[in-house]
């Protein structure tokens, strides 16, 4: 099943998306804390039906309690940079203020001269877990979605902490849909790609992840509980613009598309702030 956080006619609601038809959930304003895996398995439909073209999509989880991101999780991406292959997952946070919906413009701030793209598989947590691993960790996933971890490289590398370059307001597309695990299948066997203005820039498979989804969940849940609605980005493959020669950076008027097999297509324009 596919779900989305939507807006229509002054209302906000979570919805089941069936092809081009949107079916709002009863008394559920958005995906997140209110939509654990148990609810998504048997969604309480309101009986209303809307055309997908008539609703506005929001970030798939508009107000996550936590957004955690993996860095350096594809070996080829590590090799194109200046870091060593990690033996422990590289994690950093992102704030909910950074999230935007499919179709919303990625804002290029005037302060940064190195705005880059990063195609990523993301997952949303569906049940509260602490200190889990293996199959129990994987079972905590409510569904998968797509992220573009847009990064201001000049700010990312100003300090040893990446936060200043990773969480600018209105910079991180997340969506368009939450796709349940039964529909996605093995999350470690998905083709992932990114195109910039019609040119393929990134192409890989999640088979190449250094740390898989259960390992990521096990690592995080060791030091903090994960809860329904928490969002985790799993890292980007090689091909980022900043590591190319010459560099390929995002600019006003660009268009970026991320495709992930069995998860969907995330498309956003780029606009100067």
Quick tags:
single chain; globular; 19 strands; five-stranded mixed β-sheet; alpha+beta; 273 residues
Give a description of the structure.
- It is a single chain.
- With 273 residues, this protein is an alpha+beta fold.
- Strand 1 and strand 2 form a beta hairpin.
- It is globular, with a radius of gyration of 18 Å.
- The model has no long low-confidence stretch (mean pLDDT 97).
What's the short story on this structure?
With 273 residues, the chain is α+β, with helices and mostly antiparallel strands. The chain has helices at 37-41, 75-80, 134-138, 153-156, 163-166, 181-184, 213-223, and strands at 2-8, 11-18, 21-24, 50-51, 56-57, 67-71, 90-94, 99-100, 106-108, 115-116, 119-125, 141-148, 151-152, 172-179, 191-196, 199-205, 231-233, 255-260, 264-272.
Mean pLDDT: 97
Nearest-angstrom radius of gyration?
Answer: 18 Å
Structural class category: alpha+beta
Please, what is the oligomeric state? single chain
Structural shape:
globular
Largest sheet: 12 strands, mixed
Which percent bin holds the helix content? Answer: 10-25%
Cα end-to-end separation: 35 Å
- Show unreliable segments: none
Record field, number of beta strands:
19
DSSP summary: helix tally: 7
Strand content: 35-45%
In N-to-C order, the SSE pattern is EEEHEEEHEEEEEHEEHHEHEEHEEE
Tell me the layout of helices and strands.
Elements lengths: L1 E7 L2 E8 L2 E4 L12 H5 L8 E2 L4 E2 L9 E5 L3 H6 L9 E5 L4 E2 L5 E3 L6 E2 L2 E7 L8 H5 L2 E8 L2 E2 H4 L6 H4 L5 E8 L1 H4 L6 E6 L2 E7 L7 H11 L7 E3 L21 E6 L3 E9 L1
Parallel strand pairs: 6-17, 8-14, 9-19
Antiparallel strand pairs: 1-2, 1-5, 1-14, 2-3, 3-4, 6-7, 10-13, 11-12, 11-17, 12-14, 15-16, 15-18, 18-19
């Amino acid at each position: 099943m596919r779900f989305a956080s939507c807006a229509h006619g002054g209302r906000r609601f979570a919805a089941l998306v069936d092809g081009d038809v949107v079916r709002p959930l009863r008394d559920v304003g958005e995906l997140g804390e209110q939509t654990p895996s148990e609810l998504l398995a048997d969604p309480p439909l309101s009986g209303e039906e809307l055309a997908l073209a008539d609703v506005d999509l929001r970030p798939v989880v508009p107000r996550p309690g936590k957004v955690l991101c993996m860095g350096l999780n594809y070996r080829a991406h590590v090799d194109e940079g200046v870091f060593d292959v990690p033996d422990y997952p590289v994690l950093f946070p992102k704030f909910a203020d950074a999230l935007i919906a499919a179709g919303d413009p990625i804002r290029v701030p005037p302060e940064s001269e190195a705005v880059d793209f990063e195609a990523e598989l993301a997952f949303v947590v569906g049940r509260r877990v602490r200190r889990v691993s293996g199959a129990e960790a994987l079972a905590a996933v409510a569904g998968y979605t797509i992220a573009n971890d847009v990064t201001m490289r000049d700010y990312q590398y100003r300090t040893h902490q990446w936060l200043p370059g990773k969480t600018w307001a209105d910079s991180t597309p997340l969506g368009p849909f939450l796709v349940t695990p039964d529909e996605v299948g093995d999350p470690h066997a998905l083709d992932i790609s990114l195109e910039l203005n019609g040119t393929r820039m990134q192409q890989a498979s999640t088979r190449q992840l250094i740390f898989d989804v259960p390992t990521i969940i096990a690592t995080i849940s060791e030091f903090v509980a994960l809860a329904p609605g928490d969002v985790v980005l799993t890292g980007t493959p090689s091909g980022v613009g900043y590591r190319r020669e010459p560099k390929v950076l995002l600019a006003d008027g660009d268009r970026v598309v991320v495709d992930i097999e069995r998860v969907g297509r995330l498309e956003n324009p780029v606009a100067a702030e």
